[in-house]
Amino acid sequence: MIDYQWTSTLIGLLIASLILFLVRRDHLHGPYAVWWLVVAAMVVVLGVFPRLFDTVAPLFGVAYPPILAVVLGMGLLLIKMLTMDLERSRQERKLRRLTQRLAMLETLLEKVHQSQLAQEKEKDIGGDDNQGQ
């Protein structure tokens, strides 16, 4: 039978290996990779030192130490969700501004194109007048 310390340590190392693999394949970018590597490191540390919560929980006033792990995990998930929403908001704002700039450039390009057509038309009319004389 495998000790749970080895199991959680192995899970942490597998998560870290997966993160490094995804970073190498360019499927996961820097800030996200750092976040997940910190999570993997925490899993490894808690796997190696499972009694850590027994000593830390009373410092935070938690009577049942395993609850501290659950609360910390939920807190980290909430922080991760918040950072994802912030990043998505930033990307949407950037996309909206790029769309506005593209629309302005298309309008400007259309005006330049119409101006060129008008100038060519004037040249043609002027050229026709000169040919007729």
Structure description:
The structure is a single chain. This protein is mainly alpha-helical and 133 residues long. It has a domain of 92 residues. The protein is 85% helix and 0% strand. It contains four helices and no strands. The longest helix is centred in the last third of the chain and has 68 residues. 3% of the residues are buried. The model has no long low-confidence stretch (mean pLDDT 88).
How does the overall form come out from the CA principal axes?
rod-shaped
Number of continuous helical runs: 4
Structural class label: mainly alpha
Distance between the termini: 107 Å
Q: How much of the sequence is in beta strands?
A: under 5%
Organism: Nitrosococcus oceani C-27
Coiled coil: 88-115
Keywords: Coiled coil, Membrane, Transmembrane, Transmembrane helix
Protein name: DUF2304 domain-containing protein
Q: Which features would summarize this protein structure in a list?
A:
membrane; rod-shaped; coiled coil; transmembrane helix; single chain; transmembrane; mainly alpha; 133 residues
